[in-house]
Amino acid sequence: MTIRELSEQREKQVLSPYASLSCESQGRDRPEPQCDMRTDYQRDRDRILHSKAFRRMNDKTQVFLAAQGDHYRTRLTHTLEVSQIARTIAKALRLNEDLTEAIALGHDLGHTPFGHSGERALNRCCPNGFRHSEQSVRVVEKLEKNGRGLNLTREVRDGILNHQTAGKPKTLEGQVVRLSDKLAYIHHDMDDAMRAGVISEDDIPITLRIVLGDTNADRLNTMVYDVIHNSLGKKTVAMSPKIGEAMMNLRKLMFTDVYTSPLVRAEEAKAVRMLGELFTHYCDHPMEMSEESIQFMQQGESVEQVACDYISGMTDQYCIHKYNTIFVLQGWKVL
Question: Whose CA is closest to 119, among 133, 102, 101, 99?
Answer without folding.
Answer: 133
